[in-house]
Amino acid sequence: MSPRIKDILAMKADSQEITVQGWVRTKRDSKNVSFLEISDGSCLANLQAVVDQASVKTEETTWERLGTGASVTLTGLLIPSPGKNQAVELQVSILQVLGAAPQDSYPLQKKRHSFEFLREIAHLRPRTNTFAAVARVRNAMSYAIHRFFQERHFFYVHTPIITPGDAEGAGQMFQVTTLPLEQVPLKNGEVDYREDFFGKKAFLAVSGQLEAEIYALAMGRVYTFGPTFRAENSNTSRHLAEFWMIEPEVAFCDIGGNMDLAEDFLKYVFSYVLENCGEDMEFFDRWIEPGIIDTLKTVIDTPFQRITYTEAIEKLTGSGQSFDFPVSWGCDLQSEHEKYLTEAVYNGPVIVTDYPKEIKAFYMKLNKDRRTVRAMDVLVPRLGEIIGGSERESDYEILKTRITELGLKEEDYWWYLELRKFGTAPHAGFGVGFERLIQYVTGMQNIRDVIPFPRTVKNAEF
Ligand code: 4AD
Ligand code: MG
Predict the structure, then answer these.
(1) Quick one: which atom of ligand 1 is closest to the CA of 378?
(2) Alpha helix (H) residue ranges in 187-291
(3) I want to staple 237 with a disulfide (CB 3.0 to 4.6 A). Which of 18, 30, 82, 446 is the partner?
């Protein structure tokens, strides 16, 4: 394999011979010389290749096949560049076009394309600066996330993608079935799920939390990092039907420890990206979200605000601001409220705790007031919620009551209840929406542009 451009650009140019493979970004011709900008995706910067048309060894058809988008193999000497835009350049002696990209039909020409247009060509968009930068940052963040947890002796557990239950109780699940939809087997007028693949109803998981709790109550500290699915009919810039979630779960941990972990986690990932993705972050700072690097630095250096839901409601009602969704104690916080708190009031991340039990999931620990639960949402400017979590109800009787109160079936949660019957322990955890985290770090406005192949309502082309 030939060296990657990222490594080549860091080499000392000593007229050494190298071979490089990549795609032509641009081609500029002067009288006898062609200048090629070559990208291989390894980094944002291109390698400049200078081709002397008279002396280069190549095939006859090369010149008609060489253009933006073509894949090439180039061999030549790496020399210090006389130009001021790059330190080194390749003086090409052998040029081979592997795959041409006809200029009249190749969609990625020089001009800047809209993200909407690029979404329609998801098979080509990683060849643009923005989408390759997003992919590199996404990769670095995945690595940082594993590192953060591994360094702290958390175990990575793989929770199932097909599950029989609705972990969040929000009823937004995709059903998984092998029953013929045109002719479902009926029993007394109802679908007979005994005939289905699993002998009962099954769905794609909305979360791995409940299964992560099983492992946390055996191994102490665990995390999941995998795809989750929500059949939410929300056509927004922050919702996907298939997204990746990171879910740590910690035994012998309360809501305070949970908040500390979430804050440490975010700061670690931001620092990692700033240290390791400098070039890509400068690109985002320049073209996508001016000031993002300074914002992340400030966030790393500043303790997160921590307020209760009740305090949040007071801030919102006392603001004199008029919202589309009116605010009163008991209402769920809408994205406009989360934006107001993080942008207008605190100008940074805010952790909101102790929400009314009615608007949160059944598994959250009930507070002494019996009206609120130990929920915790981390809100950030621009996006609102990026983390949702809680201390879990660890009391068998209270949990059983909550399950019944919410109209859930006790028999569906027998194993979850048994965790509280046998060696129960206080425990807590949270879920980070990976794409929202990437949006926050890169400044990308639409969640569809930070996942390679977005799945949203009425959209699953690739
Ligand atoms: O707040 P949520 O629903 O929490 C849970 O699923 C818990 N089981 C997590 C836990 O305690 N282990 O989702 C967690 C996060 C949200 O804060 C948000 O960032 C993201 O997942 N998220 C979505 N991201 C993209 N598209 C969607 N449709 C999302 N729904 C939630
Ligand atoms: Mg939530």
Answers:
(1) 17
(2) 209-219, 255-276, 278-287
(3) 446
